[in-house]
Amino acid sequence: MATLVGSYETIARHLDEVAKIPGVKGMMFTFDDFERGVRDFGEEVKPFLN
């Protein structure tokens, strides 16, 4: 299990790199505060994803 730490842009870069690994077909996310985490991911991280 990996923990990603950094700015929203850094997290997006890490996720883009993981997505390039052969065999990776999905990722599972957990958030301490589910509603805030999902909102922050959608509003702050997703725009930086390729």
Mean pLDDT: 94
The biggest beta sheet is recorded as: none
Give the radius of gyration. Answer: 11 Å
Q: Strand content of the residues, in percent?
A: under 5%
How many beta-strand runs? 0
- Give the termini separation: 23 Å
Low-confidence parts = none
Series of secondary-structure elements, N-terminal to C-terminal: HH
Shape category: globular
Q: Can you give the helix content as a percent range?
A: 40-55%
Helix/strand structural class: mainly alpha
Tally of separate helices: 2
Looking at this protein, list some descriptive labels:
mainly alpha, 50 residues, globular
What do these coordinates show?
The chain is built from 2 helices and no strands. The protein is mostly helical and 50 residues long. The radius of gyration is 11 Å and the shape is globular.
List the helices and strands and how they pair.
Layout: H1 8-19, H2 34-45
Summarize it:
By secondary structure, the protein is an all-alpha fold. It contains two helices and no strands. The model has no long low-confidence stretch (mean pLDDT 94).
